[in-house]
Specification:
Strand 8 (128-133) and strand 9 form a beta hairpin. This protein has helices at 39-45, 59-63, 65-76, 93-102, 116-121, 152-162, and strands at residues 8-10, 26-30, 36-38, 48-54, 80-86, 109-111, 125-126, 128-133, 138-142, 176-177. Helix content is 28%, strand content 24%. The strands form three sheets. The protein has a five-stranded mixed sheet with strand order 6-5-4-8-9. The protein has a three-stranded antiparallel sheet with strand order 1-2-3. Strands 7-10 form a two-stranded antiparallel sheet. It has a single domain, classed as Glutaredoxin. By secondary structure, the protein is α+β, with helices and mostly antiparallel strands. Residues 1-16 have low confidence and may be disordered.
Amino acid sequence: MRSTVPARWVRTPGTSALVIGSPAPDFDTVTVERRHFSLAEAKRSHRAIVVLFLSTLCPYSNYYNDLLRDMSAEFGEKGVLFLGINSSRVETMTEIVAHAREHGHTFPILRDADGRLARLFDARRTPEVFLIDREGKLRYHGRIASKISSPDLKNALDALLAGLPIRPAETKAFGCAIQRN
């Protein structure tokens, strides 16, 4: 089941990967629950947005299901929106919705079967995180956490919400490759 509403986005042609401090690309699309989603609107109504590239099939992505559920609830109370994006060509809408329900993911999730949003963010792996502040600037990019217990995303969120510099602002995301068309 494919969404019939294509994603619209804004990005200067010829630009490369996002860099820390640069504006995140705006886009409008429809969630897997068939609700309208606009990154520009989300920035206006939240202190920060965590854009997560996820997969229902990737064991690296699935390793963090419970942590993402818990962090979404904890930081949602502080005005942070979590947004899942599934850029797999093979995972169906039905599978994505069932996976989200099974793992208690109540945050909006987008299906990006053609990979347009992955290309827009230059996302390469699942899971891969892009933390955007209320001004729309990329403040953190990389992994959710390392397997040696470094809670990178949580640390970045805590620093951002406290008005402190995020260190490190970029970490290496490990996981399954997002297949490009």
